Amino acid sequence: MRDWWLLALLAAVCVWEIAAPRTALTSRRSLRWPTSLTLGPLNAVLATFALPAYALALALKERGWGLGLDHTMPSWLAIAASVCVLDLVAYIQHRVLHAVPVLWAVHRVHHADVDFDYTTAFRFHPIEALITNAVTLVAVAGLGLPPVAVLVHGAIASGITVLEHANARIPLALESWLGRVFVTPAMHRIHHSAATADTDSNFATIFSFWDRALATYRATATTGADIGLTQFRAPKFQTLPWALAMPFLDSERSAAVATPSSVHTGLPK
Ligand SMILES: [Zn+2]
What we know:
mainly alpha, 2 strands
């Protein structure tokens, strides 16, 4: 079983959420979880995680294609640089998903979850899973990154994606310290707020410094804003058929009003 460690992480985060939840959920798990936990394996089958990207990187390396990072620097540094590059690609993709209406219609399936817990990490429409896989393949093909770096990035991104959606309590000082480099649950939770100013911030997947460097970092959440999207709060939108149909519904952005923020999350400024 190739992804046993990811299943172990999921089980650990699930227990952590139950033992020390950050906030009380507002919706029934029995309504939300079947949707997310069906989309997750479905998307895994469609995208087969990083295996095609790894195979492509391997084939290109054999043909001498690429930046040759692993020839010009120590292999550990080439892997670290490649992981950063792929994370920047993911950041740019995420911003484009928010900025282009037809892509936002697909990505909003992830944002329409009315609660925020580890299962939200799986709630992506299959079209978005295919887009993500295609973008990764193009990045790997265009840059010719070291094959092992593609695997390392895939593993880190999968693990962090689960952790950053955790509805679990973390000591404020620890989360603030981790948040200087990595995306934390408090930081990513702001991205899932219904307030537009919050949703259009904190796009990063692994490294929080992309948001800081590119002026999309937000350390405080809008007062009183719910998790989710205003126009998709009805219980039916938490079910699988409506989640699958969501990209083809009216694609207006949420009209939620961004009020001055004042909810301190403990994140570094
Ligand atoms: Zn988003």
